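User: Hey, my collaborator sent me this sequence without any context and asked if I could get a structure. I don't really work with proteins. Can you help?
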Amino acid sequence: MNIFKRRSFIIIVLTLGLLFLIPVASSIGLRNVTFLDALKILLGVNSTEVDSITLWLRLRRVLVGVIVGGLLGGSGVIAQAVYRNPLASPFTLGISQAAALGVAVALLFGYAGRFYPFFYNISRPYLLPVMAFVFALLQSMLVLSLAYKAGLSPHALVLSSIALSFLYQSILALLQYLVLNELQVATIVFWTFGDLSRPGDMELLILAIGFIPMLIAYMFIHIDLDLVSLGDDLSLASGINPRRFRLVAMIIASLGTSLATSFVGVLAFLCLLAPHIARGVVGASHKYLLPASILIGSILTVLADTLSRNILYPLTLPVGITLSFMGAPLLIYMLIRGISYGGYKSS
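Assistant: No problem. I've predicted the 3D structure and written it out in structure-token form, which is a compact way to encode the shape of the chain:
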């Protein structure tokens, strides 16, 4: 089997594994629903109303995990190619800090009723995710604008994002210390843990609608990602403006990350873990690396959420905590072995 067939075979296996995992994860919980029962309910065969409701509550979490994990896995690959750094991720841009500040602003103003009535009444059910998305996206645009003025080099991206991240953390700490009450502070802290139970039916629909164009955008730039990850000289020789492409690529990655983060909170570790596992099984070609990382991100998120729901039952752990416990030993092992990426090697 040549290398191209092997990579395609791995993508197929990952796809089938995810499709198998969806009913398995949906069947695990307090109410006993077997794998075959889950398949029957999903197909609408011989299902009671109680079983259908139980399964849908679990299935909704699983589908949210599939979408969010896929978005973060793909955006992590893009960030590592743009930065040419195996330890980069979209959250290196300070997206998590900006989104947390957006949540704080929503709690401070929206829930206190200080917006105009028409805005307040329409947006209140979605005020937290909307503000998280807006602040995360504004942070991405601001960092990229500053970096563009500085030449849009990877170092400029890192330095400008670090500076703004500290600024957001300082503003958030000031709000928590002087303005927000204990319940609001607890809400912000819990939101940063990541939780797949937050999205309802409408939020799942919004995620699903946004997921398809983001996947298309991810795959559309896979050839350019190969060139940019090898260096600016090769990109210019191939007819690609690396400065302009970095801007476009990080806008795409930021959109996907902002969409995922706004509904479930911060799952920053996944953006690092999924691309490294994918690179280990399919190599560095982004034609295969992107879909592999998307699938692995989905699988890891669903597995972590299933463990979160059951490992300390009746207590449900936030999925972000479980992901960190699962992924940290693996990432440390990979770092000890040494990760090669472009001209960079960690060891």
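In plain terms: The longest strand covers residues 339-341. You can pass these tokens on to your collaborator as they are.
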